[in-house]
Write a structure and sequence with these properties.
This protein is mainly alpha-helical. The protein is about 50% helix and about 10% strand. Strands 1-2 form a two-stranded antiparallel sheet.
Length: about 100
């Protein structure tokens, strides 16, 4: 069962909405030495890198975001996560330009 929609956590950043989920993201989240270090630690071609990126971008709001992305059975397909992240990235890039 999908979670009830909640407001994004109050944090610095820009608000985006993708696939019906609102979130506040830090456009500069990946411009961070510690985040890059974690990405290097997980290794090239590791799926764990996606989790490092999502934690950096959504922070404490990550659980709410992923709960809202779940389908009616409570499952969160990785294809849906990928589609969501692509849309969030597109919106953030548009704001930068």
């Amino acid at each position: 069962m999908a979670a009830t929609k909640k407001a994004p956590a109050k944090r610095e950043g820009v608000e985006v909405e993708a696939m019906g989920v609102r979130a506040v993201v830090r456009p500069d989240a990946l411009d961070d030495f510690d985040v890059m270090r974690k990405l290097c630690d997980v290794g090239e071609n590791s799926a764990r890198g996606l989790f490092v990126i999502m934690e950096a971008v959504f922070g404490d709001d990550l659980d709410r975001v992923t709960d809202e992305l779940r389908d009616g059975d409570g499952k969160l397909p990785m294809s849906r996560v990928g589609e969501f992240m692509n849309e969030v990235t597109r919106q953030v890039n548009e704001l930068k330009n």
